[in-house]
Amino acid sequence: MIFKRKESNEENKKKTNPLKAFMYGFALHGNVTYMLRTRMYMEHLFMLMTLGDMLGFPILPPYYSLRLLPYMVPNIKSWKMRMLRERDITDLISG
Amino acid sequence: MVSILATPAPYVLLGLVLYYIAYRLYSRWIDKRVWDPDPKRPTPATMYMDGVEYFPVNRYVLYGFQFKSVAALGPIVGPVLAVQYWGWLPSLLWIIIGVIFIGWAQDYSAMMLSVRNEGRSFGPITYNLVGRRARSILLSYLFIYFWLLTGAFVYILATAANGFAGTFYTIFGTLLGGVLLGQLVFKARWNIFYATILALIVVVIGYVIGYLVPFPPSNFLGTYGSIMFWAIIFAIILGIAAIVPLPTLILPFNYLAFFPAITSVALVILSALLSPLTGIGFTKSAYVGFTASFTGFPLWPLLFVTIACGAISGWHSLVSSGTTSKQVESEIDALPVGGGAMFTESIVALSSFAAISVVAVTALGANGYVIGAATLASGLFGKTLYNAFVLFFGAFLLFMGVTVEQLVIRYWRLVLADFVEERKGAIKILGNKYVATIIVLVLSLALIATFTFDYIWEYFGGTNQLFAGFALLLVATYLTKVKKPSWYTLIPGSFMLVTTISAIAYTAYLFIMHSFNTAKPLTALQQLFYTYLTSIGVTPYPIVATFDVIAFIVGVALVVLSTAMGYYLYKSIVAYRREAGVTQPIGGKTTMFKPGEDK
User: Fold this and answer.
1) Which of B19, B27, B61 to mutate to test the interface with A (most CBs of A within 10 A)?
2) Is the CB of residue B321 less than 8 Å away from at least one CB of chain A?
3) pLDDT digits (tens, 9 = 90+) for B295-307
4) Rounded to two decimals, what is the model's pTM?
5) Interface predicted TM-score (ipTM)
6) Cβ under 8 Å to A: B residues 533-592
7) Which pick of B120, B241, B384, B593 has the fewest CB atoms within 10 Å?
8) How far from chain centre, in Å, is Cα B448?
9) What are B446-467's pLDDT values in tens digits?
10) B568 and B131 in contact (C-beta within 8 Å)?
11) What are the residue ranges of helices labelled H in B99-191?
């Protein structure tokens, strides 16, 4: 009853089981978030090596960067956003 | 037949009912009148969605995640100590009143503050609102806070492992199960369900071995030697866990620990609510007096720092603004997630209050919780199961300590690395992960070795609550800046600041006074340290005096840092009030401010 709120039509279509969601959040969500962040750092490293000259780090020769470019294009915008985002040590404290 | 009023049941039930009423009335009123969340306004999770750090998450998932992140040994140990010091009535009152008027407000407001500031965490928000110096003070503060936390928690783990022989095997079994789970899921790509079943079998084997083989027995090296033995063992385990990659040990361990942890809390609450049927009643006094038994601590200010996380905790504001705020799907989710998780953690504190209140013996530290919980549960399920419940709840205690400590040591390492990052010379070695981990563990063992846990817990509680005061005042600063009423955080924040600075200053005073007269130990617990030193031919007095002076200096440093932080915060509030041209009192009239007017 505490969590009741008005639901949109889309939400009506897929009802969340609150107990299951709570258990997932308690047991697994932190792990999933960590794994996503780990993959993000590895992705950053790879993107930095291949397309680093977009951020001022000319590491890989342009020939290879251009060969890889078609595969990287969908990720470039979010990569730049994440790389250039302000970060602080307190961001990492998440229990 | 025990009178119902002499059992924990009506008081736990009263707490649950009051929490519900407070959530429905007070919390929602503040939510609507001050922050006025708009479900149509995009949150950072939707605005900066990248599927990695910023992405919307269902409110129930976030609620579970927030609760798991904030719950640790704080709500368990605090009430155990406070009930034995001052009686169960003042402890119960602070748990309930604290969370209703201060605790939920801090968690929720810290989350909303971050959500309304592009998902930024406390470091950048402090920098923006208050200034560079305030952020530096915050980071320095985190150093000391993590160190004290580690010292207090490792001591609790050591006393639990020593007090309840065999519980170590449950941790060991869970660690092995965690390593196995990690390898099966991440390397061998097993289905998580089958891997979990296999890992849980290993965990259960650990429990069975612990029950059948209570070895080594309690105090096998004498009380002091045994506790230090276990402290070193846990320090090694935590050190390894803090260094190896998370998926190897910490993540699967925390996942496996979830199953017994959630069962334990539910069991204790259920047993407490049914205590009139089982006839298990209070054995502790309702009110001992203003001066605590065992330690002589005054009720004010020390009750308010002894019970930390169950009423209010600064750690929660870090968590609320760290990851959770970046995943809030809609602003209207912040109250059930942030406020709801805090109320739920206070329920854990109520369970601890219930457990210790029925313990007939003196059992300081978390061991009192284990005895009380086992008493309540075996009253419901059969007295023959008492020893099994002791093992079960002892394991729960160890899980709650180990899961958080692994991460805290990691954070301490990161804070230290951040601190030395821009420095040059030999100091940069402190940023090395092995060096930093060893430093915090050695410092924590040094804290533990003096057996002044009662005082260290007050220091830890003081820094934790002080952090909460900072968070509340930071929120008040922001609300003043955006011309919203700030009384609901300014008044509690000021109370927390004054109370906790007083508590730390008083504890520091006790340390320095003791340094002039070390012939008598601070507490009966420290007598064990004296006895140990004397037994190995070392005169205790110079060592104790040195530790007292160091502890005094740490206390003074905390007081100075806190006062400086408080000065900067109040200065910012006054400056923003002048800037906003506000002439009305801080409470003001909520109708004068247009809802939704943010900047």
Assistant:
1) B61
2) yes
3) 889 999 999 999 9
4) 0.89
5) 0.85
6) none
7) B384
8) 18
9) 999 998 999 999 999 999 999 9
10) yes
11) 104-115, 122-129, 132-163, 167-182
Least CB–CB distance from A31: residue in B48, B51, B255:
B255
Instruction: Provide the pLDDT for residue B3.
Output: 86
Instruction: Give contacts of B254 with chain A, Cβ < 8 Å.
Output: 30-31
Q: What span, in angstroms and rounded, lies between the C-alpha atoms of B427 and B98?
A: 42
CA distance A53 to A63: 13
- In whole angstroms, what separates CA B34 from the centre of its chain? 28
pLDDT band per the 50, 70, 90 thresholds, residue A8: low
Helix (H/G/I), strand (E/B), else coil: B536: coil
Core vs surface per residue B126-139: b (16+ CB within 10 A) or e: bbebbeeebbbbbb
Report the number of secondary-structure helices (H) and strands (E) in chain A.
4, 0
- Share the mean pLDDT of chain B: 90
Task: Spell out which residues of chain B touch residue A95, defining contact as CB-CB under 8 Å.
Answer: 68-70, 315, 319, 322-323, 404, 407
Domains in chain B: ranges and CATH = 4-165+216-592 (1.20.1740)
Determine the Cα–Cα distance for residues B250 and B241; give it in Å rounded to an integer. 6
User: Measuring CA to CA, which residue among B121, B119, B52, B328 is closest to residue A79?
Assistant: B52
For B255, name the nearest residue in chain A, comparing CA atoms only.
Answer: A27
Task: Give me B143's structure tokens.
Answer: 């150093």
- The pLDDT value recorded for residue B363 is 63
Question: Domain extents for chain A?
Answer: 17-92
Instruction: Select from B49, B60, B187, B410 the residue whose CB has the most chain A CBs within 10 Å, as the one to mutate to test that interface.
Output: B60
